[in-house]
Amino acid sequence: MSDNILVFYGSYRSDRMGVRLADYIVSALRARGDNAQLVDAKEVDLPMLDRMYKEYPKGTAPAAMEALAEKIRSADAFVFVTGEYNWGPQPGLKNLTDHFLEEWFWRPAAVASYSAGRFSGVRSGTVWHSILSEMGMVVVSSTLAVGPISQTLDAAGKPTGAAGESLERSFGRFADDLAWWTEAARAQRARKAPPY
Ligand SMILES: Cc1cc2nc3c(=O)[nH]c(=O)nc-3n(C[C@H](O)[C@H](O)[C@H](O)COP(=O)(O)O)c2cc1C
Question: Hey, what domains does the chain have and what are their CATH numbers?
Fold first, then answer.
């Protein structure tokens, strides 16, 4: 079955590199038959958090927020592509994510981290695991950790060299893990309505 998977990425930098990983993941999920779509926080461009989506009276949220809420509600699973700024998450991705809460519930999520260096953003990835758990997602244990990103993926998001080959080898297990939990969550939602 084709899963609807949203791939979130949140750097606002002009010379951003992580979009290579986000593009790679979207392509690789599509190659497996999934309906994967990139949600680029910079492109969606929500304001710095003022009101959460649910705090707007029905039908009055800004159009971009309303459209994203609908996308999140209809997704089967999520992938968060996270870079690392000073050992923590990137503010653009966190800002987008915080606008929603109940919209995320009862679906699995996976974390793919990256950085310019060999630590591959894993400190930020670990923080995202806790954040996503708090927001009602079931976070799968498989992760992708990519670094140095410039030596792993080219500007078109194509794997390069030995690091790129290693990423391609890791991707199957990462996607299989997410797919297994996606199927389990879908079956359980159909069997029994979520309790809240
Ligand atoms: C403000 C800032 C803080 C950074 N902090 C870290 C860090 O803590 N650990 C790390 O490995 N790389 C760090 N880097 C380097 C990033 O991994 C690298 O710039 C990466 O390309 C950022 O993602 P982006 O290009 O998608 O914005 C930092 C970069 C910036 C701009």
Answer: 4-191 (3.40.50.360)
